[in-house]
Write a sequence for this structure.
């Protein structure tokens, strides 16, 4: 039991930090431009596939730098030539543009790399068990992932809170016009933020790719969870996104690891009643419910606190 | 959205009582087309296509109650469609096993009730907020229901779904609904009924207040309505009609499974509605016809058909957010003012580079799709080999050249259109 708790906590924090790499960019982009970037998870997927391809060509370490840069450039192009032109049609059009993009990117990826998972391996340098607890070998690559996420998190915090660039970005979040009047190129700030957000998502993809499955449906399966994270944490709130990422990461990891069901807790139902919804719910294990747990959390938070954990505004 | 909104209202206001003959004429014509269509195209394949298109139209119209009328962008509308399908399937099985005297044509109503019930339960929480938040919540709810459907096996039948037999129900007027033709007429009947009901809804005070909630919820609050309640009611109506569409689908396929509820189905209805145009009632109809037709036609031709949808969708969002209906209706004042002919030459000029650009894009996509093996590309009878540099070169020239020339040509169209619109405005026809 203790083993399960320790390992699941580690994995949960890791998954949570990965989620935060994605949700931080998403939520900053949202509060800045009012655009929910539907294609954010697609940038994560592009990162994983670029990472895979570049690792094949030039090795993992250059790929770790190059893939996010490439995706960041794509993100900037999307902002400059797509979103900026669509802005005049309103937020719904912008949201739909990114939705169409997410759809197209998934198709392009499955066209080039196929629909089945690609063989994206952990680099040889990190392919060893870091430590052994309770007879479980914990892979060094996961520790590396955790380290990268934490470093990015700290760097992001320092840039946003302690530098001039961060000051301008923060000001542009709430008062874009004023920032513009003060002589800053707000359009360029938006483009840069969009690029950095996409690059962070891609970085998450490069490091998550070898550990999780790199497949053309990875964006579609992660995207909705990402939206749950930022609604749960409160739209536009970076601390909220951080807490929500960790909560959802931990909850989902623990749910997958637990095998209990109502039947195992309270004994099986009377079999003479026949199959019904009740028996379905009674016999389903927590692990099977894991995929819907984030959405259940979403519904609960909407009923209890509609603006999200740390959110301040209603819409 | 606001430009689209004003055009809807001006269109409604501009219709005088004398236009009622023309108004009913359009509806009658639609009904006659629906009746005559299977007599002209009587092959099994086209009957199946017509049935699918009919279902898609009901579904898209129901979606437009949310998107076009109330301004709610939903990424989970298929939930109501799917639950309606399951409700209809269970109802059909229950009718057969209990020998209730309910003939098949009434079954879609139960589908609608299924969709409505779920909308009533979940809608109150969902419609608390509009805009982006609603969009995300609808996505989450969609995922929740789609995943739950695989857990609750006794209701949803797990991966394989629930099957049923439409011919086992009591007959109505001697119709067994075994042949596809009879099912087509059943779908057409419900299509007409739902379309009339949904059109009527847009003309009621409720429909108008929905438009107001879309355009300015604060002012709606000031005049004493609660936008939340209005959104909730609109959501329920949309759920009901989506359920009817789901019930029709269940009758047509004689099965309901978790694919009905999924994100792909939700995405497709969003595509059809938006491509067709949300500002006009006939927009979603056009969109549903086009998307279903493309879906049926393209799947045979190419493996990358979904990519084409994505590209068309992105193109519409970026360059014509009013959809196809919006594009068509843009020309109405020009036709009335008689200045359309000044625009047509520039359209004809633009056709060439635009087609070249489209061919280039198609060639590029197919080259990538078939690079690692597959049939040679057949573009309008010309064969291209995906592995030959000639193909790549042709594609590159078509895309780059087509893009730049097309941009020039479209600029000319915009100028010509502006001139024609100015003349039309001077003559008193508002654009």
């Amino acid at each position: 039991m203790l083993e399960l708790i320790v390992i699941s906590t580690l994995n949960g924090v890791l998954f949570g930090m990965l989620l935060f790499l994605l949700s931080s960019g998403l939520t900053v982009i949202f509060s800045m431009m009012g655009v929910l970037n539907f294609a954010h998870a697609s940038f994560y997927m592009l990162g994983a596939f670029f990472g895979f391809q570049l690792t094949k060509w030039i090795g993992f370490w250059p790929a770790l730098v190059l893939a996010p840069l490439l995706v960041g450039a794509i993100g900037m192009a999307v902002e400059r030539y797509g979103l900026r032109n669509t802005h005049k049609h309103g937020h719904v059009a912008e949201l739909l543009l990114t939705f169409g993009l997410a759809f197209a990117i998934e198709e392009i990826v499955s066209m080039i790399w196929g629909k089945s998972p690609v063989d994206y391996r952990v680099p040889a340098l990190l392919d060893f068990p870091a430590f052994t607890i309770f007879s479980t070998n914990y892979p060094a690559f996961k520790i590396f992932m955790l380290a990268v996420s934490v470093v990015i998190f700290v760097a992001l915090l320092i840039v946003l809170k302690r530098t001039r660039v961060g000051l301008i970005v923060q000001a542009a979040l709430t008062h874009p016009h004023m920032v513009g009047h003060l002589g800053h190129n707000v359009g360029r700030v938006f483009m840069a933020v969009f690029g950095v957000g996409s690059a962070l998502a891609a970085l998450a993809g490069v490091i998550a790719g070898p550990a999780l499955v790199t497949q053309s449906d990875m964006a579609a399966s992660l995207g909705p969870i990402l939206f749950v994270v930022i609604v749960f944490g409160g739209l536009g709130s970076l601390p909220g996104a951080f807490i929500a990422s960790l909560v959802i990461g931990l909850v989902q990891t623990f749910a997958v690891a637990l095998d209990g069901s109502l039947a195992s807790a309270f004994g099986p139902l009377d079999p003479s009643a026949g199959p019904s919804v009740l028996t379905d719910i009674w016999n389903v294990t927590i692990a099977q419910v894991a995929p819907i747990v984030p959405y259940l959390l979403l519904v609960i938070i909407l009923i209890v606190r509609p603006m999200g954990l740390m959110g301040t505004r209603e819409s | 959205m606001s430009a689209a909104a004003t055009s809807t209202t001006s269109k409604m206001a501009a219709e005088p009582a004398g236009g009622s003959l023309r108004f009913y004429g359009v509806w009658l014509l639609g009904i006659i087309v629906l009746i005559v269509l299977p007599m002209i195209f009587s092959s099994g394949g086209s009957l199946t296509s017509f049935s699918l298109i009919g279902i898609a139209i009901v579904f898209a119209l129901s979606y437009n109650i949310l998107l076009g009328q109330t301004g709610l962008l939903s990424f989970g509308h298929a939930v109501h469609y799917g639950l309606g399908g399951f409700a209809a399937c269970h109802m059909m099985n229950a009718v057969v096993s209990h020998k209730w005297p309910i003939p098949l044509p009434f079954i879609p109503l139960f589908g609608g009730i299924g969709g409505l019930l779920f909308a009533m339960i979940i809608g109150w929480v969902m419609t608390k907020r509009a805009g982006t938040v609603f969009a995300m919540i609808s996505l989450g709810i969609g995922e929740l229901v789609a995943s739950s459907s695989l857990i609750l096996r006794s209701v949803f039948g797990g991966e394989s779904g629930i099957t049923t037999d439409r011919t086992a129900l009591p007959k109505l007027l001697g119709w067994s609904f075994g042949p596809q033709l009879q099912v087509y007429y059943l779908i057409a009947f419900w299509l007409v009924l739902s379309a009339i009901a949904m059109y009527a809804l847009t003309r009621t005070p409720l429909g108008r207040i929905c438009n107001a909630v879309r355009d300015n919820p604060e002012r709606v609050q000031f005049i004493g309505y609660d936008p939340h309640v209005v959104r909730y009611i609109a959501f329920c109506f949309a759920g009901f009609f989506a359920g009817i569409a789901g019930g029709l689908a269940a009758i047509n396929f004689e099965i309901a499974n978790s694919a009905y509820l999924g994100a792909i189905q939700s995405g497709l209805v969003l595509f059809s509605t938006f491509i067709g145009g949300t500002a006009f009632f006939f927009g979603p109809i056009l969109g549903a016809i086009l998307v279903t037709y493309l879906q049926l036609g393209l799947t045979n031709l190419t493996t990358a058909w979904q990519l084409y949808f994505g590209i068309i969708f992105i193109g519409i969002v970026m360059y014509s957010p009013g959809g196809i209906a919006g594009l068509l209706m843009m020309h109405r004042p020009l036709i009335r003012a008689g200045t359309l002919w000044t625009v047509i030459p520039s359209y004809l000029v633009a056709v060439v580079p635009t087609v070249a650009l489209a061919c280039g894009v198609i060639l590029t996509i197919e080259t990538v799709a078939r690079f690692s093996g597959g049939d040679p590309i057949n573009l309008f009878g010309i064969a291209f080999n995906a592995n030959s540099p000639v193909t790549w070169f042709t594609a590159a020239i078509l895309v780059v050249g087509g893009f730049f020339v097309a941009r020039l040509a479209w600029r000319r169209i915009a100028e010509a259109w502006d001139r024609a619109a100015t003349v039309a405005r001077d003559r008193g026809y508002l654009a």
About this structure: Chain A has a mean pLDDT of 83. Chain A touches chain B through 51 residues (CB under 8 Å). Residues 2-33 of chain A form the longest helix (32 residues). The beta strands of chain A are 129-133, 136-139.
